[in-house]
Amino acid sequence: MSIALTNGILYTGDDVLVDHAVVIRGETITAVVPNREVQREVEWIDLGGRSVAPGFVDLQVNGGGDVLFNDDPTGPAIEGIAAAHRRYGTTDLMPTYVTGPLDGMAQATEAVAACARDRHLPGVLGIHFEGPAINPAKTGAHDRDWARADGWDELLSVYATAAARVRTLVTLAPEVVPRGFIADLARRGVRVSAGHTDATSEELAEAITEGLTGGTHLWNAMSSMTSRAPGAVGALLADDRVWCSVIADGHHVDFTTLAVTFRAKPRGKAFLVSDAMPPLGGSTNQFHLGVRAATARDGRCVTADGTLAGSVTDLAAAVRNCVRHVGVAPDEALRMASLYPAQYLGVDDRLGRIRPGFSARFAIFDDDFNVSAVVVDGVLYPT
User: Fold this and answer.
1) Is residue 363 within 8 Å of residue 320, measured between CB atoms?
2) pLDDT, tens digit, 9 for 90 and up, residues 145-189
3) pLDDT grade, residue 100 (50/70/90)?
4) How far is the C-alpha of 149 from the C-alpha of 139, rounded, in Å?
5) Residue 200 to residue 9: CA distance in whole angstroms
6) Which listed residue (92, 143, 275, 348) is catalytic?
7) Degrees, nearest 5: CA angle 92-95-100
8) Could you give phi then psi for residue 340, rounded to 5 degrees?
9) Which of 145, 206, 228, 330 is the most exposed place for a label (fewest CB within 10 A)?
10) Element (H, E) at 33
11) Please, are residues 90 and 271 in contact by the beta-carbon 8 Å criterion?
12) Please, are residues 132 and 148 in contact by the beta-carbon 8 Å criterion?
């Protein structure tokens, strides 16, 4: 039985359409047509003027629903995290394991691989390892005791095992790892991104030559740009080949700085991440990141000394912030939350657009980007 979502505004990733319907059969989009062309035998779902966009794709999800992936790297934990983010329009994500022990990384890989293998949890795109090859001077809220300065063969083996099983994104400090390490990861199909780094622009440029393709939460926990020292930020902004993720919560990066960022990067090379922590979609504002206690208050996650520790901003809120406070057009802000991260990860052949043949995965929201429902593989979930 086919269904058609009608009487809404369609943000397809390419166009903004009115008086059109998206037709779904099973897990797949079969047509995007004017309302008058929808067949009578199709079940109509009236959106009441709400908007539909491709489901959001979040490549940096530390937790949600009172669960931190590091603390519980299991399938049930991933299910809880995914359910929390689904309420805010995120249909696809990468569970993110931050700087920690190698055995925890291996367990996290197994949990993500099981989700992918069994297909009982749609929307798990792979695994993101944020660390442990980070610069001790730029750890942020990460546990400095787990930051690595040696044992590269052992760490490479953990990354390689993950990459052989699932899509793998690795955030590291290029100046910390030995020469050739990034190139080895890239040859194995790993997406390598710079983060928690004190690299010079020259060191960052060398890493890009080796195969680094991204910058993780640009501006945060990395050497910034000054008039005579471009740093990691300057190098990432200047190179049009490189994608950059940003946390658009108004706390990690000033909105004016975000506006400059979006002007500096070519269209499609900046995308949104949540960097979400357990309080997102949860019932408590308290959590631990390693040995450090953290609290979510006033829209910020902070440790006792005031260090930012991830966020409680979902991608729908990030889109809203980009539109309201940065002046980004709604269709472009929505692409930053869906199409562009899908392109970075190489899954834009099925995600990030409302187009025949693509997966039926949508966010449904009002004029203020409040999400009222999501569609995951053709199944409608009210939020």
Assistant:
1) no
2) 999 989 999 999 999 999 999 999 999 999 999 999 999 999 999
3) very high
4) 13
5) 45
6) 275
7) 170
8) -65, -45
9) 228
10) strand 28-34
11) no
12) yes
- Confidence tier at 120 by pLDDT (50, 70, 90): low
Predicted local distance difference test score (pLDDT) of residue 122: 81
46-81 pLDDT per residue, tens: 999 999 999 999 999 999 999 999 999 999 999 999
* Rounded Cα distance, 180 and 160, in Å: 14
User: Given this model, what pLDDT does residue 119 score?
Assistant: 61
Distance CA 229, CA 87 (A): 42
Tokens 């059109």 belong to 20
User: Cα(282)–Cα(290) distance, rounded to whole angstroms?
Assistant: 19
CB-CB contact of 250 with 169 (8 Å): no
In this prediction the pTM is: 0.97
Residue 155, token pair as written in the block: 């760490």
- Residue 46 in tokens: 């009236």
- Which pLDDT belongs to residue 139? 95
In the chain, what are the domains? Answer: 2-53+355-382 (2.30.40.10), 56-345 (3.20.20.140)
**Rounded CA separation 200/225 (Å):** 10
